[in-house]
Every structure is written in C-alpha cells, then in structure tokens.
Amino acid sequence: MGSIAPSPAEIDASVVKITRSTNLRDVPLPGSPEELSHSYCTDHMVTVRWTAGNGWETPEVRPFENLSVPPTASCLHYATECFEGMKVYRGYDGKLRLFRPDCNGERLVSSAQRTSLPAFKFEELKVLIAKLMQIDGPRWLPKDQPGRFLYLRPAMIGNGPHLGVQTPKEALLFIIAVPWPDPSKKKPEQAGGQHGLKLLASHPDSIRAWPGGFGYAKLGANYGPSLVAHGKAQAIGFDQVLWLFGEDRQVTEAGASNFFVVWENKQSGKLELVTAPLENQLILPGVTRRSVLELARTRLNQSCGKLAPVEVVERDFTIGDVHEAWKEGRIVEAFVCGTAYFVTPVKLIRNDDVDMNMLDAGAERAGYAAQIKSWLEAIMFGKDGAEAHEWGYVIEGESQK
C-alpha cells in the first residue's frame, strides 16, 4: 500500500512565534496628525504564510514593517485580496475586548474563498488578535485611559511570484492595529458629528454591486471602483454615496456602511426599522448591522423610555419609497452603521435635485440610533452591567513589559 500524503496544515494560533520589537514607536495623542493619518501602526503585527503544498505555517507576532511582495504577485494583478475591519476596546473595567470576533472571522473566510484564497478555521482569528494585543495593548490602550480603541485590519493577499491567471499558490494572512480617530469626538460641523451625515444618491450609470457578483464579500475589488463616485460626492460636500441598484433604484448601502431608516408604514401606520436584505448578496453582511437588528428585535419590540416599539423589516425598498415617506412626514430617522462610522445619524439625502432632510419630520420621536449605539457601547467597553455579555470577547494575559 502506498503512503497517504499528509493533509495541508491548518492555522494553529496556540503555537505562535513571537519576536519583540527593540525599537518601540511613540504612542500618538488623540487628535494628533499621526492618529488622523490612519497609517501610524502599533509596534507589532501578525503574519501567517500559506502555500498550496504545505498549508499554513506557524503564525508570527513580529515587529511592524513593510511587506515584501514580488511585482508578479496575483494580488497586484488579479485582485486576490480580502480584508476585515474590527476594533479592540479598552473597557471601563480595565479589560481589553473584541466585539463578536467570530463573525468577522467567518466573513474573512467567506471573502477569501470568493476570491480564490485559502480558508482557515475562523475561530483562530480572534486568538491571533489576542496574541498581538497581549503585547501591544498595554502601551497603546493603557488601563488608565478607558473608552479608547484601536482599529484592527486583518487581511489576506495572494503574494506568490506566479504571474498568470490561476489560483494563488501562496498567500499571506496579516493583522495590523492602527490608532483611529473617534467619530464621536468630532466637532459638530465635521462629517459624522452630532448633526449627522450627508448622503448623495448614486446615479443609474454607477453600480456598486449586482446579483451573482461579490458585493457580499469584503474585497478590495469592491472598493476601488467606487472611490471615483465617493470622491466626487465629497468634493461637493457630501460624506458618502447612498448606493442604489436596478431600474427601480433599490437602496442598498451607504458608502462602506449599512443603511437603516425608521418610518411609519404607509398601509398599517406601524413604526418600522427597515434595511436592505442579504438574500440577493448585493450588500455586505455587516457585523454591526447584524447586532443592530438583533438588539432591535429583542429590546425595541416594546416601548423603551420615550421610544415606541418598532417592527424590524429586512426587505427591498427604493429611493422612491424614501422620497414618498419624506414628503408625507412618515420618516422618524435614518442612520448608517459599520465598524468605522459605528452608528451615525443621517441628516440629509440628495436624490437628483431633491434634498431630503432626515431630521425634521420625526425629530420629536427620533432616538432609536442613539439608544442602539448606547447598548452597543456598553457591550464593547464593558459598562452598564454588560461586562460579561456574550458578544464581548475578553483578551486575557496582557504583557507587563
């Protein structure tokens, strides 16, 4: 009998090679140019190499440095690249937490498979992040400064030297951590401040995603082509593009965020929290989106303070539906959510030559976004009795060095 070839190795985050940096970087102050640059990373990074023949190699926590990628790498030519957006939070109880990291791990694996990159056991992602934060967490998120966070960017690229249209034979998973401006600390006149975002509805000749495509995966290929429209929107004073799809102009996403509206149903008169569905795979299945829906279904199905109950609805709706509800005074509020913008109100939507003010009609009844945001913050930062919530993954074993 012939010998059976060994299976390619899986990622094993319990065995990690650690090389500590001997040249520690200055930790930037909140609001500093370094923080605002979105490019000033912490002292260390995680890398895990994969090859088609042997599978995943031993993960490494190593000093942050630039990657070496051959000019023939498939990520540069064929968009074999995917990524995640996460945050690590310093809680008011002194603990470091991730928010629902297995959801991000699952989505990263799904995105990787959609762009021909290798899969891995998604549960290992949070353990790799924990290894990184055990080293960088104490300096970059000190215990005496609760309420702060770092942005995390797990990513995977096809980095082998093989030019040609083919499935990548080599790949690299890496994780970096970046100090990030807190949108809640921005001045009111800035984008995402207390007055909310301004959205510009996309034109029919510009489409972000389509059925059978990859709008549901977090791929760089989703973002590059959309930046032209984003840049044009910003140039005329808008924060994000509200992406529409199809002849009936269905509302899908707002920039890199999921979009929600609270309105009165025209037929029943009941209050609804409405967002686009996932079935047609046009939108990203956001982790914050998923959490907003679950909290709304379990906590806003009855009165909450001054807030009346709402019914949660995931369905197709059009910009025409939004316009009609706005004209009839049925809109209570609109907001976007995602890791970067968190939960942020929308103050205005421009569709063609019509500016729809989202703050006027339901101002007295609004507050759903703020309430959901406060619930999420309590879980993320371990406060208001949410220290042991199942969505918060506590990172233990921080380095004392």
UniProtKB/TrEMBL annotation:
One of its GO terms (cellular component) is mitochondrion. One of its GO terms (biological process) is L-valine biosynthetic process. Pfam families: Aminotran_4. InterPro entries: Aminotrans_IV, Aminotrans_IV_CS, Aminotransferase-like, B_amino_transII, BCAT-like_C, BCAT-like_N, BCAT_family. Keywords: Amino-acid biosynthesis, Aminotransferase, Branched-chain amino acid biosynthesis, Pyridoxal phosphate, Transferase. CDD domains: BCAT_beta_family. This is Branched-chain-amino-acid aminotransferase. It comes from Aspergillus ellipticus CBS 707.79.
